[in-house]
Amino acid sequence: MRFSLKNISARNTKILAAITVISILSAWMKYSTSTPQKLVIHKRVAEKQSKKLVKFTFAGEILPFDSPLILKRYRRAIAQNRNYNIGNLDMIKAAKRWFPLIEPILRQNKIPDDFKYVATAESKFMLSFSNKGAGGFWQMMPITARGLGLEVNEEVDERFHPIKSTEVVCKLLRQTYNMFGDWTSVALAYNMGSNAFMRLKKKHGASSVHFIRSNHETERYFFLVMASKDLIENAARYGYRVRKSGKVSEVKVVEVRETISDLSKFAKTHHISLATLRSFNPWLRTQSLTIKPQSQNQKYLLILPVVVSSEIEELDEEYEVEPSTKNILAKDSSFSP
């Protein structure tokens, strides 16, 4: 009887061992056959995303999105933009206000229209200053702004004047283009300085400026410009939309050649509040506007609204943008923002 039980026990052990081996082999075969399919799917998605972006240009220059490195840098910039959804909403609204003033100036100076997105990447049209003291829509240092003919003092800061700051920046961009001969280099040089970028370009000698290794800020900068372009041009895809009844705020430009001692009274004569006047003229710092005989500015340009309307609204109360697997925001294991 004992011998018989031992035989049964040994037989059961063998059966269990066989079942275990079969289970392991089955699981391995299932993994080995499904994993390549998943890899193929990921590859096809990546190829599809790259094809969608292959004609994505900056100033008429096609970006090398066929490079995994460039695609990854761009996706990181998009992800970074998604972390500032309320700020993005304000940027989209501000772009609707300021672009109609900036675009004609770019055209008049034969600067590609895409350079308006340099301003959005630089400042998001926020009325703030960098840690180094750069300010304005184009983020200029005070000494640079004064050297270009802008007035920066306790009463006015024309770095925040959308018309005058854009006019002087256009001159600077044209000079930089004459140095490098391509607009992508101009955008990068604007961020890090023409001389510094020239040294970097000579050092690396890369076939494309997109592959030049530089500091983290400059490498990221150009893709933030492109991410801003994509966000503003395709706002609905990222969770924002333009109201069908919304209109861009119409404005008029008024030349001021005499001192205005009280801007509040001036605003009332034009049937607007002082707050509205400041909103359209963020370069004003005080309650007055003085024409100084010794100043190179013998006139100022005040921007006044004709019709003020709301253009943009969020799709939900928290301004969240839901990720989509159908576009470049699709997450995968190879991407970590």
List keywords for this structure.
mainly alpha; 11 helices; two-stranded antiparallel sheet; Lysozyme; disordered C terminus; 337 residues; 6 strands; elongated; single chain; 3 domains
Detail the poorly predicted runs: 34-51, 309-337
Overall strand count: 6
Provide the number of structural domains. Answer: 3
Q: Structural class, judged by helices and strands?
A: mainly alpha
Q: Average pLDDT across residues?
A: 76
Name the helix and strand elements from N-terminus to C-terminus, one letter apiece: HEEHHHHHHHHEEHHEE
Shape category: elongated
Question: In what order do the strands lie side by side in the largest sheet?
Answer: 1-2
CATH topology of the largest domain: Lysozyme
Helix content: 40-55%
Oligomer: single chain
How far is it from the N-terminal to the C-terminal residue, by CA?
A: 69 Å
Give the number of helices.
Answer: 11
Mind explaining what this structure looks like?
There is one protein chain. Helix 3 packs across helix 6 (162-180) and helix 7 (183-192) crosses helix 8. With 337 residues, the protein is mainly alpha-helical. The longest helix has 52 residues, at 2-53. The chain is built from eleven helices and six strands. The strands form three sheets. It has a two-stranded antiparallel ribbon with strand order 1-2. The model is unreliable at 34-51 and 309-337 (pLDDT under 50).
